[in-house]
């Protein structure tokens, strides 16, 4: 097999060897990759299986014949997993990394334009009232 898929294949094999399907239920790794046992695999193994399939499919894809097959590196997946960004992929990059800012759900929303206009009106009327009160005293 060409070297472009070796790394993700090794990661899939390692994940399968550590899975409950192989360790506890004593099924072979090949059996664990077929239905109905594939549904019981951890999400990480299922994602590696999908990535390995995409890598193998990319080896025969004629659209990639000039640039070569570029599988997602397993090291990239480990790095994003360690940083907490997740390893869900979108266009070859982590789907959740590089966001604009962290959100916790308690952020103040942008001010409504009507509220801004009302505040401006209140300030103008308060200034006018203060000017009239100052004119009446003198």
Kindly summarize this structure in a few lines.
One of its GO terms (biological process) is mitochondrial respiratory chain complex IV assembly. The chain is mainly alpha-helical and 138 residues long. The chain is 53% helix and 3% strand.
Can you tell me about this structure?
Residues 93-138 are annotated as: Disordered. It comes from Podospora appendiculata. The chain is mainly alpha-helical and 138 residues long. The protein has helices at residues 6-18, 20-23, 29-32, 43-59, 74-83, 113-137; strands spanning 89-90, 93-94. The chain has a two-stranded antiparallel ribbon. A hairpin with a 2-residue loop joins strand 1 and strand 2 (93-94). It starts with 5 loop residues before the first helix and ends with a helix. The mean pLDDT is 78.
- Radius of gyration, in angstroms, nearest whole number: 29 Å
Strand content: under 5%
How does the major sheet shape up? Answer: 2 strands, antiparallel
Strand order of the largest sheet: 1-2
Query: Helical stretch count?
Result: 6
Ends: how far apart?
97 Å
Alpha-beta classification:
mainly alpha
Average pLDDT, all residues: 78
Order of helices and strands: HHHHHEEH
Identify the quaternary structure here. Answer: single chain
Shape: elongated
Total beta strands:
2
Helix content: 40-55%
Low-confidence stretches: none
């Amino acid at each position: 097999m060409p070297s472009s898929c070796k790394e993700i294949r090794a990661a899939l094999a390692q994940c399968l060897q550590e899975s409950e399907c192989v360790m506890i239920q004593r099924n072979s790794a090949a059996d664990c990759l077929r239905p109905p046992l594939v549904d019981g695999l951890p999400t990480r193994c299922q994602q590696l299986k999908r990535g390995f399939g995409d890598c193998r499919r990319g080896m025969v894809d004629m659209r990639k014949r000039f640039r070569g097959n570029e599988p997602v590196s397993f090291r990239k997946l480990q790095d994003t997993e360690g940083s907490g960004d997740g390893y869900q992929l979108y266009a070859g990059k982590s789907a959740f990394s590089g966001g604009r800012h962290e959100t916790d759900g308690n952020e103040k929303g942008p001010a409504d334009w009507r509220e801004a206009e009302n505040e401006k009106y209140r300030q103008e009327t308060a200034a006018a009232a203060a000017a009239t009160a100052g004119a009446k005293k003198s």
